Amino acid sequence: MRILRVLIALVAAPLGWLLVLPALLVAAPFVLTAYLTRRLADWLGPKAVPWEELIQFEPVFGWRSRAGLSAIALDFNGDPFRVTTDSDGWRGGSSLDEAEVICFGDSFAFGSGIDDEHFFAELDGSPAIKAIGVPGYNLVQSYLWMAELREHLRGKQVVWLVYPANDLDDNLLPNMERYRMPFLRKVDGTWAIHSAHVTPEPWTIESRRQNVDRVIEIGAGTPRTDRVMDGFRWLLGQASDVCSSVGATLTVVNVPDLARMSGDALDAALADHRYADRFDAEGPARSMGEICEDLGANYLDLGQYLEPVDYLERDVHWNEIGHQKVARVLRSLHTTSDRQREAESEAALAVSSGGSAR
Amino acid sequence: MIELPTPCRRVDRRAFQLAIGVLAATVVTLVASPWLGARAIGAGAAAFVVLLIAGFVAPRFLDRAYDAWNRVALLVARVCRLWITAVLFGVVGLVGIAGSRLPLGGEGHRRASWRAKPTVPREAYRSQGAETGPSSGSWLYQLSGWSIRSRNEWTLLLVPLLAALRLVHGQTSSSLSAKNYTLY
């Protein structure tokens, strides 16, 4: 039987080879093009540095970008962008002391997906902007840097970029994937920053869900919404105290998620989500605005200025046009706050001179 | 791999533009050579330059061409896979005429085909399915080893068909968000 099988196969297999030949001829141009494209892409593409090499462990903060970096990083789509950091690990040409606008935040403040020359803190113009941002940060980490650098903020415009799509929820989480990070914890009815667990050891329990699920839950007015907003309120109070202690003006800036890929993911998730009918996309931003008003902090919604075309095609971050718009908005914010400060001092002067007259 | 890289990066688009240019230049040179002789190389080079310039002048056209090429490639891959699989099973079916070693009828039918399972070796810790031997080497090496050990040498004649099937196998589309390093 073994021999018979071989004999039949010796006849049938070559016949099969002949039969598949036309299919291979049809497929050949496509196979060849795909092969050439892959090889040429390997050859043409710059050698990118993985994220693990762009960041380093930082006690209490969890991680930070490396100092003196000049590397090619990859955005979500795998497209490269050039990243340069200063001796402290921050992007942006000007130094912390030269800058009049200090911008804190996560990957938006870091400039993920954008080359140095198009990064909002690198664009020519006055006043100078310094970005203190690291990918993956929650607001607790940004706040801790604000407190750490408070002396450099004296009399300046402090901008806090808040990306509600994940920042608000991340404030309550102890980790970002395998990286440990400081977070907010309510103990005996009082919020506090917890960072005792922050070590270089990888975190093994994944508690962070996909962004889109969290966006829906927080936008649907659930108990989670109340909790994350309560945490934000407490944190904003702390940040306001830090800024007012050095005469800095704090402005919370909402970063809307207008990227096409986020919109598509949200639409798909909402199609059969239990919170679909209660979901309010503007809800978190509106609540943030109300909290800012309650606490007397300035609030600006970038949604007034940005459009979906200002975002990268296959990434949630801003493109070149988006960065130009953000730079203009932040600079105008500084001018406004200057005028506000002048008006306040004039009013104070008027009151004091009125008082002396009396 | 028949499919172009997905998701498409900027460098993939540029590489595709060059690849298409090279292929077009080759085709033009081959087709024109009976009439133009050595000057056909110039015609091929001209075709390459025209496509290169077109890609730079109209990047949106390049994007659309990339997507369209990929759609057609996937369609071709599906049809080819179906055809090659049918041929492959046809050959296996024909070989099956020689009969089976399994006692499926007669006296053998009454005997149980169950066999006691031996203790699984430590090497099989990762996968206890099918082969328990070392899994090093290419699929061709593993197939050859199996066909000789199991006295199914005829299966080696299927290798060209399996290779053809592998050639037209599309890339498993990866979800961008699923495995993405979401550090933002």
Task: Identify the notable features of this structure and list them briefly.
heterodimer; A: 358 residues; alpha/beta; five-stranded parallel beta sheet; two-stranded antiparallel sheet; 10 helices; 13 strands; 44% helix; 16% strand; elongated; B: 184 residues; mainly alpha; 5 helices; 55% helix; disordered C terminus
Fold and architecture overview:
In chain A, the strands form five sheets. Chain A has a five-stranded parallel beta sheet with strand order 6-5-7-12-13, sandwiched between helices. Chain A has a two-stranded antiparallel sheet with strand order 1-2. In chain A, α4 (139-148) runs parallel beside α7 (223-245), α6 (211-219) crosses α8 and α7 runs parallel beside α9 (283-295). With 358 residues, chain A is α/β, with parallel strands linked by helices. Chain A has ten helices and 13 strands. Chain A has helices at 2-44, 51-54, 107-110, 139-148, 167-170, 211-219, 223-245, 260-270, 283-295, 320-357, and strands at 55-58, 62-65, 70-74, 80-84, 101-105, 129-133, 157-162, 175-176, 179-180, 183-187, 190-194, 249-254, 298-301. The longest helix of chain A has 43 residues, at 2-44. Helices cover 55% and strands 0% of the residues of chain B. The longest helix of chain B has 37 residues, at 59-95. Chain B has one domain (10-105, 136-170). Chain B is built from five helices and no strands. Classes of the chains: A alpha/beta (358), B mainly alpha (184). At the A-B interface, α1 of A face α1, α3 and α5 of B.
Largest sheet of chain A: 5 strands, parallel
The succession of helices and strands of chain B, N to C, reads HHHHH
Percent helix range of chain B: 55-70%
Radius of gyration of chain A, taken over Cα atoms and rounded to an integer in Å: 26 Å
- Our measurement of the CA-to-CA distance between the termini of chain A, rounded to an integer number of angstroms, reads 120 Å
Strand content of chain A: 15-25%
Q: What gyration radius of chain B follows from the Cα positions, in whole Å?
A: 25 Å
Q: Please indicate the percent range of residues of chain B in DSSP E strands (runs of 2 or more).
A: under 5%
- Oligomer, anyone? heterodimer
User: What sort of overall outline of chain A do the alpha carbons produce when their principal axes are compared?
Assistant: elongated
Q: How far do the termini of chain B sit from each other?
A: 32 Å
The class by helix and strand makeup of chain A works out as alpha/beta
Number of helices of chain B: 5
Structure class of chain B: mainly alpha
Number of DSSP helices of chain A?
10
Which parts of chain A are unreliable, with pLDDT below 50 for 5 consecutive residues or more? none
How many DSSP-defined strands of chain B? 0
Sequence of secondary-structure elements of chain A: HHEEEEEHEHEHEEEEHHEHHEH
Mean pLDDT of chain A: 91
What is the overall silhouette of chain B? elongated
